[in-house]
Amino acid sequence: MLTIGKIGAQAGVKVPTIRYYEQIGLLPEAGRSAGNQRLYGRKALERLAFIRHARDLGFTLEAIRDLLSLSDNPEQPCVAADAIARAQLAEVERRLARLTALKAELERMVVQCAGGKIADCRVIEVLGDHSLCSTDHRHPESESSP
Amino acid sequence: MLTIGKIGAQAGVKVPTIRYYEQIGLLPEAGRSAGNQRLYGRKALERLAFIRHARDLGFTLEAIRDLLSLSDNPEQPCVAADAIARAQLAEVERRLARLTALKAELERMVVQCAGGKIADCRVIEVLGDHSLCSTDHRHPESESSP
DNA sequence: CTTGAAGCTATAGTTGCTAGAGACATTAGC
DNA sequence: GCTAATGTCTCTAGCAACTATAGCTTCAAG
């Protein structure tokens, strides 16, 4: 049996985050010691590692919730899991495209800054006028998490 | 003089967002009409467009605050603005590297899903065991905003 | 047996907005 | 001039996914 600090260290998740996951129902309520401290077994550790890994891969907690409920029913077809992963992949590809454009734009800005005064600074100038941009980096794509 | 909805439309920023920017001091308090509605001139529109553009490029509101105060003092050297832009570029490059690794991992996961049952699903399996990964996509990089 | 680390609960804060309620202002059509 | 639709006002609360703080209790080592 592991304390919360121990599984946290093993799974690479901070202690308050584990308590948070329990609170929102991603992890089941842990058993308690005589002194009211949470105790975890190997299954809990695996589940936490699963969550951590999925978070690393950029899945939202909602997606992870779905994936976990899928993995809890191993006799079902895996179409749903595949769909979640594909959606995530598509999302990552969108972010990649956008970030690539942003990188180009920022490089242009930075290269042109000659170390003069703000009045002549291309960084400020480019930010003030989108028409100076080469790429169309409009329309966000809300780059959340990972 | 433009109403809040008009500059919002022109700058591509939603009305409540403009009020929010005013609230946190990114935009100065707008003048008011007889009926207490906010009215904006060209300077306000330019400032808002600046903010919008910088947000598009992934700058945080804090960075934008700094950039705005720089652009308000055009006689200063532009080293600071350059530094902010370079930091942003570095951040974007870090995210790009990470997202590229994630994409590879997700592609591996998705390709291997054969349409069987969850029990055999590589998506679930890979998420449960980091050692099945080829890349090291650990250590977040908190992918905030753009 | 004492000390210090680790654990507990509960609440509030973070970032960058977005949504809702209920009241007032403005504008377009008739 | 009137009415209806749209726009704007303030205020509060909510979103993700945590993180931090305060003030307490429990545990393990020396």
Automatic annotation (TrEMBL), chains A, B:
<dbReference type="Pfam" id="PF00376">
    <property type="entry name" value="MerR"/>
</dbReference>
<dbReference type="Pfam" id="PF09278">
    <property type="entry name" value="MerR-DNA-bind"/>
</dbReference>
<dbReference type="InterPro" id="IPR047057">
    <property type="entry name" value="MerR_fam"/>
</dbReference>
<keyword id="KW-0238">DNA-binding</keyword>
<keyword id="KW-0805">Transcription regulation</keyword>
<dbReference type="InterPro" id="IPR000551">
    <property type="entry name" value="MerR-type_HTH_dom"/>
</dbReference>
<dbReference type="InterPro" id="IPR009061">
    <property type="entry name" value="DNA-bd_dom_put_sf"/>
</dbReference>
<keyword id="KW-0804">Transcription</keyword>
<feature type="domain" description="HTH merR-type">
    <location>
        <begin position="1"/>
        <end position="70"/>
    </location>
</feature>
<protein>
    <submittedName>
        <fullName>MerR family transcriptional regulator</fullName>
    </submittedName>
</protein>
<dbReference type="GO" id="GO:0003700">
    <property type="term" value="F:DNA-binding transcription factor activity"/>
</dbReference>
<dbReference type="InterPro" id="IPR015358">
    <property type="entry name" value="Tscrpt_reg_MerR_DNA-bd"/>
</dbReference>
<dbReference type="GO" id="GO:0003677">
    <property type="term" value="F:DNA binding"/>
</dbReference>
